[in-house]
What we know:
The protein is mainly α and 140 residues long. It has a single domain (2-116), classed as Large-conductance mechanosensitive channel, MscL, domain 1 (Non-ribosomal Peptide Synthetase Peptidyl Carrier Protein, Chain A, Orthogonal Bundle). Helix content is 73%, strand content 5%. The chain has helices at 2-12, 15-49, 76-114, 123-139; strands spanning 60-63, 72-74. It has a two-stranded antiparallel sheet with strand order 1-2. The protein is elongated, with a radius of gyration of 31 Å.
Amino acid sequence: MKKFTSEFRKFISRGNVVDMATGMVIGASFTAIVNSLVNDIIMPIVGVLIGGVDFSSFRIVLKAATETEPAVTLNYGTFVNTIITFLIVSFAIFCVVKSMNKLHEKQKSAAAKDAPAPAAPPADIQLLTEIRDLLKNQNS
């Protein structure tokens, strides 16, 4: 049990796990914001544009309600809301990843510029290289 606890502590203290947990919390919060954006701002505007109807109430009744059973419906309005939410979240994640990649490339190019020029090879290596090249030219 002590080994298990030790392994778990080592696992949980790794940076990747903490980063992943942080990302999940932020992602869940961001999804709630986007859901509100879609349901409370975008879809009412779409509803007004298509005739003042609450878009999330669009559904197809497959089986009408009876006194004992509720209706069976396909809620395609809610499905469209979910698709729009997905597209907005996907676009936002794309923008974040793209900007992170751009920043990473800038850092790489800055590091390459700041890297010192390769040192010239020692004189004996230069001489051997010249001899090799001369021998190649003679044999060609």
